[in-house]
Amino acid sequence: MSTQLLINATPYEIRIALLEHGNLAEFYLEHPAEKGLVGNVYRGRVVRVLPGMQAAFVDVGLERTGFLYVDDVLVTSNEVEKRLARCDRGDGTGHDTCCGHDTDPLCRRHPGQNIEDLLSEGQDIMVQVCKEPLGSKGARLTCHITLPCRNLVFMPRTEHIGISRKIEDEDVRQMLRQDIEALRPAGAGFIVRTVAETATNEDLEADMEFLLHTWEEIQARATTAPVPGLIYQDLDITLRVVRDVFSPEVDQVVVDEPETYQRVLQFVETFVPHLKGRVELAPEDPPIFDAYGVELEVNRALERKIWLRCGGYIIIEPTEALTVIDVNTGRYVGKNGLEETIFKTNMEAAKEIAYQLRLRNIGGIIIVDFIDMEDEEHREAVFNALKEAAKKDKSRLNILRVSEFGLVQMTRKRNREDLEHLMCEPCNCCQGTGVIRSSRSLCYDVFRQIEREACRRQAETVVVRVHPRVAELLLREEAHTVDYLEKKCGKRIQIMPIKDFHPEKYEFTWQ
Known about the structure:
Layout: E1 3-9, E2 14-20, E3 23-30, E4 41-50, E5 55-59, E6 66-69, E7 74-76, H1 77-86, H2 94-99, E8 106-108, H3 115-118, E9 124-131, E10 140-142, E11 147-148, E12 152-155, E13 161-163, H4 170-183, E14 189-192, H5 201-222, E15 229-232, H6 237-245, E16 252-255, H7 258-271, E17 279-281, H8 288-291, H9 294-300, E18 305-307, E19 313-318, E20 322-328, H10 338-360, E21 364-369, H11 376-389, E22 397-399, E23 407-412, H12 419-423, H13 439-454, E24 461-466, H14 468-475, H15 479-489, E25 492-497, E26 506-510
Parallel strand pairs: 1-16, 6-10, 13-14, 16-17, 20-21, 24-25
Antiparallel strand pairs: 1-2, 2-3, 4-5, 4-9, 4-15, 5-6, 7-8, 9-10, 11-12, 12-14, 18-19, 19-20, 21-23, 22-23, 24-26
Helix pairs in contact: 6-7, 10-11, 13-14, 13-15
């Protein structure tokens, strides 16, 4: 079965779906009015240094200041010397301590150096967004600039050569390392991407020239750009996904908008001309996501409960600090005993969990509560199945073995907002908690409030305005309690349903 990359482009929204064996494997979404920030390079100004957090807030011209951690700081040696001298920590060797040798124009943080040694409020600094703003948090920033291309990632501020861990053939890794070493200029670092496993020397050289030229342009703009201000903007989501996802393993790229199709075609002709024939323009009717059955799959990806083929199911519960995934046998009763039923459910759940993490782009800490297994071999098999299924995921994962409590702890690198944050917002009623107070509980609140105030009011009638659901309970099941309060307080109680009220809201008017 083929693999397709579908691009649905409209003036108001860009949606991209990667289909593997006919199933939705990855989904990308961006609104032109809210373009992603990861990869953008800014001239920023340090607005606050926090020694207690070993971090700084940097104004880069966005709605919220960005967050720069001490390990992501990279500044000139002279600047560090000034910081050290200013806080009376310089001993005449601060330059050497920072850089290791006197000719190094840039330095990284060494153990013992604090954020206040490296940065000061009001200082100008070049930074790159490495994580999108999430919720109320600003963007995560770094001074370690990286510029990605088709086959290479350029790291202008390091001499390191890295090879993608997914290139497993040691001979290929060694050959690629030698090619980069021969091509790169002195002082330039590169990471060889997975797709470069089959790239020619000419492909690597072309990417390298493009990236070096881009870096020269960034440096030139940095000398004249305002502070704070944008000096380099990464590709939009369409070309970025084509750059990062379109490989020989993808059989077809289908675009449904002529102008976007031409942009994609031009990009492919520049960087991977041998794949040009795989780019196609979709017909106007039917809509591309309907034709491939993606629309329904996207909506399913927002559901809390996911059913397994065996009849079991998993529950995905995101929280502020982590995501919890619970596995249940559901309708599956098995045939040959409880242990086998549990094992089969867990094995199927392991594959589905890896798939859902990738599809929903769930990041951070993830706790998986598999059904308890007594057999050690079964626990090991489920752990291995989860690791094997996660190999398709491009994000970095760290998976720990099954704990004493039957839990699997894992982390998944978070670079952008997950699908739920992109497509949903907190409920107006519950504000994202998932629960509101029961109607009966609110009825009793109303009764207590009437008793509390009745003795202080001269009015003969109290009008209670409540949500219709609460009003119905007051007028029917709790009618006897309303009569009791009228006699006890000597007031007439009038219930008035207000359909526009929040379910938990109520008001009193004393007449």
